[in-house]
Amino acid sequence: MNKIMESKSLPKSRQDTSQESKHNLAQDFGNDLSQDVLQNAGRDSQVSLLEVKDLCFWRFVGLQKMHILKNISFSLQKGEILSILGRNGAGKTTLLKCLLGFLKSSGEILLQGRHITELRGAMWDKVSYVAQIKGATLPISALEMVVLGLNNAIKFQPKEEHFMRAREVLHELGISHLADKNCASLSGGELQMVLFARALVKRPEILILDEPESNLDFANQKMILDTLKSLSKQGVSIVLNTHFPAHALFLSHKVLLLSKLRNEGEIDSNALFGTSAELLNQTHLSKLYSVPLELHSKVSPFSHDEFIVRI
Fold this sequence. Notes:
Elements: H1 19-28, H2 35-40, E1 50-61, E2 64-76, E3 81-86, H3 92-99, E4 106-111, E5 114-115, H4 116-119, E6 127-130, H5 142-147, H6 151-154, H7 160-172, H8 188-200, E7 206-210, H9 218-233, E8 237-241, H10 245-251, E9 254-258, E10 271-275, H11 276-279, H12 282-289, E11 294-297, E12 307-310
Parallel strand pairs: 3-8, 3-9, 6-7, 7-8
Antiparallel strand pairs: 1-2, 1-4, 4-5, 9-10, 11-12
């Protein structure tokens, strides 16, 4: 994947969050956080590439204000991968849409220290997004779909060099055979790979993915995971929603666990932010999904490269 992209300490979760509210957050997940999580949550030694502070999003049900996301805070440095996990309805996709400005939220969303509302269209020079596949797609070729990822630079007037770049990305992902096929006739998995190629073609600094493994067979899931790891090593920061704890264990430097709000007055936030090593364990995951999970590694001590998740 070297051709696609040529271009650890745990930062603060909420700088102004008190120790008491952090313990309240830990209690919502039904466990005692390690002292390292509580101490590191207030630490940040540099300006983050992406930083979210006290993000809230709500909807009105009748006259009642119902929070979906409450005081979500996290940060991401260059080359780091953040996985967002949670049950259906917890607000994972909603959070991504807030990050991209598709939904209006309160709090702060900073890209290299600047609020996304200040950046406007310039944000898309740095950020690529792959949404979940829903409904019909454009009846254009896969190659043309990938070239659309360069819209900010080429203003819908692609040149041969842009098509060459698109073909290169398709080749790197092993899907060159789809180049001339109509996207409307592709399977869900094939279209997912094409949309992934479209996100990569402009060489983004930040890649935001909503369940990128959906609709994919095991071979293409592995392709996606290996590609994301390679991009991370090349300096790309990645935020993804996933329903696969094993994938998060394999990929992530940092993790955001989202719980579905029940009695929102009882907790300060419905998110827990920390490093993969701190949060992706049996205790946290079992509580998050309300299912007893066991992590088994093929080697000792536990390795994130050799493990299984057992229900």
